[in-house]
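#struct-help
A.M.: can someone run this one for me? Single chain, 202 residues.
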Amino acid sequence: MKRISIAIVSVAAVAAVAAAAQALAPRTAPPALAEQDVRVVAVVPFTLEAPAVHTFRAEAPTYASGDLVVLESNGATLVPTDLPCRVPMRGAEVLQQVNRGSSGVVVCVAPACDDASGDFRLGPYFLSAPMTPEQVDRAYAANELANARARGQVRLTESDLTSLSAAPVVLPDENELYKLAADLIEAYVPDEQDTVRGLRGY
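D.P.: on it. Structure tokens below:
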């Protein structure tokens, strides 16, 4: 089977997501987000031909599929630091934040890890209590999810997920996944051009 170039796939995926987001943009301002809430802006499902390691979790599980997600917070700074800070989560899984997040908009890898269970793609999506993501294990993540549900965090509906999602893409490896993430950063966080250049390797 003839392979379509990654560049073409990336542009098509970003264009589809951006068009969907624009079509769904509310005519009035969306409701304010609470401190640990996030709004899902866009979703790009992916499959990797070469599995990758989820380095943001203590067990370092592998994954060969998942989603790139664009999330919007209440404007709080989400710049990763060496100190405990809030990190994006989807269900009982910590996400790999790709960009700085100083604008409150983050692009994340939401991996479907080998040890995942249940219908995790619907979330809920939320920000954790202050922590360092590399210290998160399954038990800690499950506790964060329980706390999120107790706060009233709700999952996406299937209709929401369909509306927010671009067509699935198949990529050779994690390097190409991060190049696709660079396209999303360029589209949704245009002031982070240094991040975009770094992910693209120039």
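A.M.: thanks! Residues 1-8, 20-29 have pLDDT under 50 and may be disordered.
D.P.: also worth noting: Residues 6-24 form the longest helix (19 residues).
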